[in-house]
Amino acid sequence: MTYTKIAIALVAALTLTACSKPVEPIVVDQRPIEKPVIVLPPVDEFNSRTVEWIVVTPDNIEQVFKDLEDSGQHIVLIALTSDGYERLSLNMADLLKLVQQQRAIIAAYQRYYEAQP
Fold this sequence. Notes:
By secondary structure, the chain is mainly α. It has three helices and no strands. The longest helix is centred in the C-terminal third of the chain and has 33 residues, at 82-114. The two termini are 71 Å apart.
């Protein structure tokens, strides 16, 4: 029984001494922190390759075929209707518009993150 009393007294003494250590006050810093610098990879530069367009009509189809054969090229035609060509042009315009919008967004991020407070 005496060992139990000694153990209880020892645990109580250790518990009370652990609580006697002064608690450090919490410091709240309300200064604004600097915003992190955004790192964006550079965008590849687009260099289009030259594409030769040949307009094939019923009047010149035989000559176009002959010219292709004479130059050793395969005769392959990819055709568009006038409506299809118009849609292709509009799609390219939409793509260009999207690229310009993305550039503007990236430039805005760059100005925001690189601006000095």
